[in-house]
Amino acid sequence: MNSENEIKARYRAYCDACESGHLEKLENFWKVPTIFVVNDGAPGVAKHLIKGYDELVSLYRTMFDASTGVDQTVITKQDVTMYGNNLGIIQTELEHYAGERLDNIQKAIYHCVKENGEWYFVAHLSDIENK
Questions:
Q1: Is residue 108 within 8 Å of 89, Cβ to Cβ?
Q2: Looking at residue 61, what is its pLDDT?
Q3: For residue 37, what are the domain limits?
Q4: DSSP secondary structure string for all residues of the chain
Q5: What is the pLDDT of residue 20?
Q6: Residues 6 or more apart from 18 whose CB is under 8 A from it?
Q7: Which has the higher per-residue pLDDT, 66 or 40?
Q8: Which residues form the SnoaL-like domain (predicted)?
Q9: What sign has the CA pseudo-torsion 15, 104, 97, 76?
Q10: Whole-angstrom Cα distance, residue 80 to residue 89?
Q11: What pLDDT, on a 0 to 100 scale, did the predictor assign at position 15?
Q12: How crowded is residue 118: how many other Cβ atoms within 10 Å of its Cβ?
């Protein structure tokens, strides 16, 4: 599998872990410290510097995982840009559903790094349009 497809596969697996509430698996996908910058329609832009996996899980419980009611993630767009062999960016567009109801649309960019043969996310930038 080429690097672009490896990143896309990792991203899908990551979405599956989040929507099923398996936040303990986040450290399989992320390297910390990391930064999350999220525009969710609230005044200002939320910026989170995440120093440990416990902070990452806490952030997910409030914004992204099944505890928010979202139980399905439909990836409508994925584009990967490679920077050499070990760095990449995946740009995504997602529809998050709570049951059959569209909860939000998220456009996001994840910075990726390859370490020891595995791809990890190291930064997140997203815009969330709540429905």
A1: no
A2: 78
A3: 3-130
A4: --HHHHHHHHHHHHHHHHHTT-GGGGGGTEEEEEEEEEE-SSSS-EEEEE-SHHHHHHHHHHHTSGGGT--EEEEEEEEEEEETTTEEEEEEEEEEEETTEEEEEEEEEEEEEEETTEEEEEEEEEEEEE-
A5: 80
A6: 26, 60, 64, 65, 66, 73
A7: 40
A8: 7-125
A9: negative
A10: 6
A11: 86
A12: 11
Percent of the chain with pLDDT over 70: 96
What pLDDT is stored for residue 37 in this prediction?
93
Distance CA 11, CA 46 (A): 22
- Structure token pair of residue 24: 């303990």
Q: Model pTM?
A: 0.89
Residue 120 phi, psi dihedral angles, 5° rounding = -130, 150
How many domains, the chain?
1
Centroid of chain to Cα 107: 10
